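ok here's Phospho-sugar mutase, seq below lol
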Amino acid sequence: MSAAPETVAAARAWLAGDPDETTRAELEATIAAAEAGDGAAIAELADAFRGRLQFGTAGLRGRIAPGPNRMNRVVVQQASAGLAAFLLSREPHPSVVVGWDGRRGSERFARDTAEVLAGAGVRAILLPRLMPTPVTAFAVRHLGASAGVMVTASHNPPADNGYKVYLGGDDEGSQIVPPVDAEIAARIAEAAETPVADYPRGEPEVTGEAVWHAYVAATAAIGQPDQGVAGATSGPRVVYTPLHGVGLETVEAVLAEAGFPPVIPVPEQSEPDGAFPTVDFPNPEEPGALDLAMALGTAEQADLIIANDPDADRLAVAVPDASAPMGWRMLTGNEVGLLLGWDAARTARGQGVLAASIVSSPGLGAIARAHGLEFVQTLTGFKWVSRVPGLVYGYEEALGYLVNPGTVRDKDGISALVRLLTLASDLHERGSSLGEELLALAGEFGAFASGQVSVRVSDLARIPAIMAALRAAPPAELAGSRVLAADDLALPEHGSIGDILRFTLDDGSRVMVRPSGTEPKVKVYIDTSSTDGAPAARVRAARERVAAIAEAVRPLLA
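and the structure came out like this:
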């Protein structure tokens, strides 16, 4: 067994143009091992050089390693040259804000991005230090930039990094959507024909702290409602973790300016660390990610645990629950989404739109109807939620919330934290809690429960195989309920929404199956509801139904 000669030739050509010592050394070692017959090295070379890392509506995201199918300095510079060409084809003097988080390679990738943009004749505005993703999204609008680039892989595994693109102007700082992604990808392919060493480079502008302070002020302002909850010297006792990410400094500044009591940080996870040493995956949804926060919450007799993911665009919440394994129950993304949706609806005064992705809870629709608001379901991905006209609040079940569309057009875990604490503080002053408020919502609107089943794969070919098998032989029943409809949302009659399967059961439950857009997973979303009995009984019945359907779904993903 040996590496294909054309693959080795491509790898050696890449090696000659790679400006990074680390990835050059890694590639040299892989080539040598592959030529010696090492199977793992042969497979790595074949995958790293089988094509380009695809630029899509999530920008770029992948493992940091050499080769065109990986994240590295060559791919980042090619992407930046392609983005520059795209922007210059649209306007004569474009500008781009560039930010980065605390992941491995993020700062170097950001500086390469800004220097290549500047060399191409684009005004490149580099943020002064690592910051949360929402600050970059805010800066695009605040500075009136043509576009923004955020170097982050959000909550992906530690080996990954990414390149996220926003557009200004009529796009108002939202993430890119088709056909722009394809147009930029075509420009990147053209740029890749020139060695990166031949790209002109320029010196970018480096902003001061004014942008960060403006974001802090704008975000703190949404925690100062008419009822004057913020500014109180007492409130719920809160443990906070940024999961080794960049959230803590900004969260503390925003809460101080809004007048909230300080949070209690998890010391082992407070500083940015791209190795994420205390978690297997830096995603607050993953089992074990909040164990340290829960232990500290118990020791500190906290009322609430709040977490951001490493780039602080997502928000996770846990509440005390004596029946849970560590005494804390993490609220689902839909539970937080409905709490924040109810909060937004009651202050909207009948004006505006509530929106959620199609795989998020239908409960937001019930809340919108009760408050005389329009409810819109969007395609999956926050790039669609953020673009809904008249939006006052939007969310997706994967812990993404947009509570201040007037200033940020992307999910923002820090502004969502502020609104959640405003709500929690109000309830605390009234002797109540978020858990009790969820029961009250169940009494008013019915109980909506949700759950997920996901399968992580090492062989990406398994994902289309699983989806094809479900399309070919959809289940006739799940957990004792007949499947009334099995809809393929990729088909024109169902809106050509994407690679999503929807199963509607005769008890009103809904099951959605789709590949993850950012991770090697197939995800199943389960939504149930109940309006029978007292609120606690409704919640219990809906959760039991979710659990039963989840058990019935798992064998379908094998």
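fwiw The chain is about 40% helix and 20% strand. kinda neat tbh
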